[in-house]
Fold:
Amino acid sequence: MTSLAAETRSLLHAHGVHPRKALGQNFLVDRDALDDVVRAAELRPGDLVLEIGPGIGTLTTALLDTPGVEVAAVELDEDLARVMDARFSGSANVRLVRGNVLHMDLDAVLAPGHPYKVVANIPYYITAPIIRLFLEAARKPESIVLMVQREVAERLAAAPGRMSVLGVTAQFYARVDVVRTVPAASFVPPPAVDSAVVRLRPYRTTLLPLEEADRFFALVKAGFGEKRKQLHNALVRGLAHVPAAEIDAALATVSIERTRRAETLSLEEWGALFNVLGARVPRPKAKETQGHGRGVLNTPGLPPPAAHTQLLPPLPPEVAAMARRAGIAVEEDL
Structure:
């Protein structure tokens, strides 16, 4: 059997495609890992899958092994879209959509009202926007399976003691599981770090009403705003309009020691603190961005995405510039 790595290199060469490593174009060539991604999606005959960044169609082919599965594949890179078109133009079960999924109305991409699942191998700098896009949408997927950096996967699924704004955000909306790690050698070209497969299953009912989500995340951000500071001090600084004595009283009411740090709080403790202090947290103003009006990102009746919260480390300037030139809205833009 020809190795997946050899098949990948052959396809890239045949179509004159050169992976743009700076934009996270790393192609999975580990068949076991590929099978685990498909298993994590828990596909049934007739399922509709939204695949983000299909590349040259390796995962697309594996998804189609389940009878009756339909794939809507969204590809931004025109060179890779040409490969996808050449491989699947004759398939009735694959619809190729060119463009940036962050800027699309998903009802124009997916059959209206049809349940769907998301499967994606995405560059780390759009992990948070992708998660927000689907977990904050009125039309949520049944599940989201992502290939992300291992560190990002661990932060998404972290337990109290290692929590972050990213972890609180993801776990507010969904149950998060790390399915497996995937070593860098499993990709062509190999990335600088290992990856992991993570699965998110959105909750039908969230910890708090969705209309309170933006203020809830403002409170969380305030708590995490001062690294290595005690929670009381971080909240006093982050919620400068609230007297320190009031913050002390709120923490005491929900039995949270003022000396704890934000990363030690569970999601339930953040919810309890918000129930006591939330009325004093101002509703953040949504950031004006070039992506205004991006379909499901600004769904009427739901709060805007938590754009005030930086979930991932800033990109190196040269990588951010390349991403923007390619039409990708990077984390600091959202």
